[in-house]
Structures
1.
Amino acid sequence: MATTSDIKKGLCINHNNDIYKIIEFLHVKPGKGPAFVRTKLKSLTNGKIIDNTFSAGHKIDVVRVETRKYQYLYNDGDNYYFMDEETYEQIHLPKDMIDAPQFLKEGEIVTIIVKAEDETPLTMDMPSTVIMEVTHTEPGVKGNTATNATKPATVESGAEVRVPLFVNEGDKIKINTETGEYLERVKE
């Protein structure tokens, strides 16, 4: 059993009969009263995010997890199929376990968190950014750049992203997978 002093970002714990991953935490030591730890927890089974406060010294049940690299292969609508890079074993995850499935492209390397005791996949972490090719966008109108104007663009995975007017079809762009925002055009 661990205590609140062992809390760190990314730690997986058993809480209220579910497995949660700690997304954020803050040790608070008020001038009056006992110290406590304010946390933001993400359920690995349903994806819900909750706020929870643990009193200092509270015992927490840590779940042992392993992170493994997998290569994305394909999806059949509801299930996404991945291959372990070392053992070549294939696993599938339901769509709701994946944070940003619209930014997955074939061959992408992702991190899957697996419960060490029974090899159950818990969640999948996308890379923070992906580079994708623009497959369709309207041409930008010259002289229409007085402000930060954007236009819709479809990338190779089928997702739609708002991009600046100077981005054209065939350009490769970097996308933030958490927010779905355009970051920059990539030159190769």
2.
Amino acid sequence: MNLDTIVFLVSAVVAVFSATMMISQRNTVASVLYLILSLLAQAVLYIQLSALFLSAVLIIVYAGAIMVLFLFVVMLLNLRGNQDLGDKPSPVSRITKYLVSILLVVELVFIIRGIGFDTGTVGIMTLAADDFGSVAAVARILFTNYLYPFELTGVLLLVAIVGAVVVSKREKSYETPAGSGNMPDDRKKVEI
């Protein structure tokens, strides 16, 4: 077992663990922090694939900007997890959780069985192009095949930002009560 394999295994375990913890948290701030940890572990995996640009974009854009935006929204809306931990979940939600978990495990088993681990088969690393993850490759795909979704995402983000500003803006009344001056108490005026 070489160093690359150890780094891959540790990063993969951290990414899966933090993603699992992210969806199982009741506290939204803790969930966002686990998502940041998962994104950092995925960035390490991109570095191992020699996709340094994708790794930097993942850290700067998602772990930096988007997570800060999530934290601001959580703080703005004052979202809190269910503080009543004594409440038992309904039987329907419990059955749904177990059913989805079983389906995901079955899907994972089919995916693992479909991957060939023979030494004669072509590995995943050799299927990637030489310029995988480079700035030119990402730009070529983004601005040719996905130009319309890219532009639509920009408009959607602009609408979301304007909506957040409108929601957070509150009407403030700057009128002072009648008979009061600049000072809150007229009796505190001192004449020299």
3.
Amino acid sequence: MNRMKLLAVLTLMLAGCANTTPVKTEPPVLKFDYHTQANAPENGKIIAITSYQFLTNNAPRTKQPDAGLLNFKLASDVVQFSAVTNYHENYELQLQTAMQSALAEMISKRGFTVTGPFKSSEEIPYTDKKHLYLIILPRLNLDIEQRPTTKSCIHSICTDKGVITLGGSLLLRFIEPLSEQTLLTKRIDLTEPGISKNYIHQYPQVTRKAVMQGLMYSDNELNSLIDDADKQLVDALNEFYRAAMTKTDALISAKELLSHQDDLDQIRGFKRR
């Protein structure tokens, strides 16, 4: 039997070992829907926004190449929950898009015309930069931590209980478009108050021995498995998003941004000489 056929047989055996006990879970719902209450009159000035630079404290779990037939991903690898991996695979882009949209709305509702997002300030054509008032460079540092408090496997059912915490900081740099000189910096602490969610994740234990021997275990060991880990992660992200946008909204002032007109004129006058 060649390698591919043997792998197929083992996969079918693994499927036969799968526990069919229903999983009690509540679908997570993203609530990235912040809207500013600001409503200033138009001032005729244009502000460009670059894409959020997203930095995280750790990278998603990488998929290592198989080192051999028995190193292919078993169910025990697949069902274990990783908050960091789930975030990067399912929610990072949506969070970035929502924060980008909310920031653009905040600037627009303060009377500015918004253009972008651009990948970077270098992407903006020079002819366009000459007509811009400011460029905003946003950067988010997001810390995601998953701390298991209890992890055990009894009668082929594994239970992982723990805490997911979110924190970080947001940096907004307002720069002069041609010289890229920084005129204003806003730093927003997102570690206080801390965001913490308790989770429980239960899943069937599948070992190589069970796969090779075709071992079965009872579906009646538990009436249902409990899994709210993904929902708790999403609830934490919803809370983080609202806190980040609320603090950002409170720190952006049309009056303060417009007060830099003299500084901009001085910088641009210096560049023309």
